[in-house]
Each structure stands twice: as C-alpha cells, then as structure tokens.
Amino acid sequence: MSGFVNPLARSRIGLLGQAAAIKGWTRMALGCADDVVVSVNQLACAEPGCPPEETVIMALPAGGPALKLSIHKALADLTEADIITAAREATSLTKRSIAPSPE
What we know:
Elements: H1 12-30, E1 37-44, E2 53-60, E3 67-71, H2 80-94
Antiparallel strand pairs: 1-2, 2-3
Helix pairs in contact: 1-2
C-alpha cells in the first residue's frame, strides 16, 4: 500500500457524504418506500457533445421495474434541485411512481 496522497484528488469522505445526500433527496423526490434501493454512480460520458461526467441514480423497488435518473453533472456538483427536476422528468415520461401504494 502506498503512502502517496494526491493533493488534487477530491475528498472521499466528501463524496460519500454527497452520495448519501443524493440518495436522501432521491427518496424524498420520488416518495420511495422503505424497501426501495437507491444507487448513485458517477460515470464518464463518452458520447460526442456530452459533458465529461454524469451521475446515474437508480431506484430499485422490490418486485418492480427500476427507475433511472441521468444527470449530466459530476456527483459532487449535484444539488437537491437537480434531483427534483430529474425525478419530475423521469416520472412524467414513464407515467409512474415508485411511491408506496396506499393500504
């Protein structure tokens, strides 16, 4: 294991905290049930004209289809407003919600 610390690298603790915040914002924006798994990943975008990084958020309800949110920003740059906008767009396009059904 190397003792080298890259002074230009983003803080892992900061990114983990941001990922947790994004998961919380996603749960609130989509009205997720407790059994919905929310996954947050930052990917490189290789498509022409695409920003170099995008964040992909997957909401995976138990026994139902997944809902994908793609935002063309780095994970560290996302805001709650970005998540709310992406959630509205995704649910209006799919005409569905992953909120818990009323009992």
